Amino acid sequence: MIHIPKSEYGRRRKALMAQMEPNSIAILPAAAVAIRNRDVEHVYRQDSDFQYLSGFPEPQAVIVLMPGREHGEYLLFCRERNAERELWDGLRAGQEGAIRDYGADDAFPITDIDDILPGLIEGRDRVYSAMGSNPEFDRHLMDWINVIRSKAHLGAQPPNEFVALDHLLHDMRLYKSAAEVKVMREAARISAQAHIRAMQASRAGLYEFSLEAELDYEFRKGGAKMPAYGSIVAAGRNSCILHYQQNDALLKDGDLVLIDAGCEIDCYASDITRTWPVNGKFSAEQKAIYELVLASQEAAFAEIAPNNHWNQAHEATVQVITAGLVQLGLLQGDVDELIASEAYKAFYMHRAGHWLGMDVHDVGEYKVGGEWRVLEVGMALTVEPGIYIAANNQTVAKKWRGIGVRIEDDVVVTKTGCEILTHGVPKTVAEIEALMAAARAQAA
Ligand code: GLY
Ligand code: MN
Ligand code: MN
After folding, report:
1. Does residue 132 carry a pLDDT above 90?
2. What single DSSP character describes residue 282?
3. Are 138 and 204 within one domain?
4. Cα 52 to ligand 1 centroid, rounded to whole Å
5. Which among 309, 354, 373, 440 is annotated as catalytic?
6. Relative to the CA of 408, which ligand 1 atom is closest?
7. Which of 145, 237, 330, 363 pairs with 349 at a CA distance of 20 to 30 A?
8. Residue 89 annotated in active site
9. What residue stretches are annotated with the Aminopeptidase P N-terminal domain (predicted)?
10. Do residues 167 and 183 share a domain?
11. Same-domain status, 217 and 344
């Protein structure tokens, strides 16, 4: 299995600690277990920041980073070994495992945190934490601070600054290392395989969930624990619902199906959208819209390179899509004016992409000092233009209604432009029709 090597977690902790102010402490909790219903839990997914700094996969754990501390800078609070609980729920690293396998300098039982952590915080000037994102943890933190305050008469010194960890950490996460790109390539490869399998299986008379099952099969077979987000399998008019998740409608002859799905490998997401005809053959109108979206995506790729700014790719898609909609008669008027008035948003209402990484909509600022961020080597993003003509849109000729097309790929900025991680899925009309025809011939 391709994964982030253990040594990388240590490098990340060091890099973060090097940026922290002197005499400070950073505290991060693991994700809580989420109850699905009564005794049933959701599949556990570690918090991305916690995972980024530790690779530690268990709940009920807290990372403490204390740059410059003589007796160890990286402390981990985690569950103790427990033969009975492990019999029911699976193995735990315990404190020994936290040190041996996860590089902690020292480890303590999570049940001792209230006794130990105030003493670690005391005397540090600044506390870095993800303030505001986890109210329960924020309350604990204040409790620990109050323990120190209550001992002020004994000379205890509470910290006097609380700093949001997000800025430092999320900026680090924005730049992907070689190891991260390798994992993202693997997630992209498996997801590409999943889209191909769904294309091959596509037939009128199946349901949207029939194709979702094909995706899930490839994800799990490839070693992914779960999709990176709820898969969107949207046929016919559902393709115009941007975050459609019902996935239970019939696939009909003559309709398109839009699939937006990607798996997660070692907590790194992939995010692919392809749109194809259920019956394997694009109609004239479907093809016209599809090729327009594809042309806009090609124009966006050309804008992704170091020193170009974040919004250039989006602007390129808007330009191509607006001009194309005018040519097809779906918009009337001057292209520049239609862009200025945002008339294109009736058909293309979302942005051309987002940062991609451990979170599918990954962390990192899009603007710096009020200006669009300039792209740099190692940044990963999606490129996902689309055109959606709602089934009830009375302003366009009937033949266009109910067509929704999005094409989405994942890229990493390189020295000379960008690497397309998700190149493995057919994309041109000819490629898609050929793949689907071959699958039908084989099945016949
Ligand atoms: N799958 C969510 C997105 O494309 O942003
Ligand atoms: Mn997507
Ligand atoms: Mn996306």
Report:
1. no
2. -
3. no
4. 22
5. 354
6. 4
7. 363
8. no
9. 4-138
10. no
11. yes
Same domain assignment for residues 97 and 166: yes
Of ligand 1's listed atoms, the one at least distance from the Cα of 261 is: 1
If pLDDT is split at 50, 70 and 90, which confidence band does 187 have? Answer: very high
Percent of the chain with pLDDT over 90: 98
Q: Would the pLDDT of 285 be above 90? A: yes
- Nearest alpha carbon to residue 314 among 366, 277, 251, 356: 366
Degrees, nearest 5: CA angle 49-143-121: 65
87 and 190 in a single domain? The answer is no
HSE-up (13 A, CA, CB side) for residue 410: 32
Tell me which of 243, 258, 274, 360 to substitute to probe ligand 1's pocket, judged by most ligand atoms within 8 Å of the beta carbon.
360
Query: How many angstroms separate the first and last alpha carbons of the chain?
Result: 36
- Give the Å distance between the CA of 242 and the centre of ligand 1: 9
d(CA 92, CA 225): 19
Indicate if 147 and 102 belong to the same structural domain. yes
> Of 173, 208, 232, which marks where a domain is finished?
173
Query: Residue 119 is part of a domain; what is its CATH number?
Result: 3.40.350.10
| 159, 189: one domain | no
| Active-site hit among 350, 351, 401, 423 | 350
Closest protein CA for atom 5 of ligand 1: 361
Q: How confident is the model at residue 444 (pLDDT cuts 50, 70, 90)?
A: confident
Is 79 considered catalytic here? no
Residue 105 known to be catalytic? no
Can you tell me which atom of ligand 1 is nearest the CA of 229? 1
DSSP string, 306-358: TTSBTTHHHHHHHHHHHHHHHHTTSS-S-HHHHHHTTGGGGT--S-S--B-SS
341 and 260 within one domain: yes
Does some domain include residue 352? yes
Read off the pLDDT of residues 369-395 as tens digits, 9 standing for 90 and up. Answer: 999 999 999 999 999 999 999 999 999
The encoded tokens of residue 60 equal 């009920």
| pLDDT at residue 168 greater than cutoff 90 | yes
Question: Is 314 among the catalytic positions?
Answer: no
Ligand 1 atom, smallest distance to 406 CA: 4
Using CA positions, which residue lies closest to atom 4 of ligand 1? 271
What's the whole-model pTM score? 0.97
Out of 156, 173, 190, pick the residue that ends a domain: 173
Distance CA 344, CA 346 (A): 5
Query: 189 is in which domain, residue-wise?
Result: 175-443
Give residue 371's pLDDT: 98
- Tell me, yes or no, if 408 is annotated catalytic: yes
Q: Is 410 a catalytic residue?
A: no
For the chain, what is the domain count? 2
**Residue 1 resides in a domain:** no
Across residues 81-102, what is the average pLDDT? 97
Q: Ligand 1, atom 3: nearest CA belongs to which residue?
A: 271
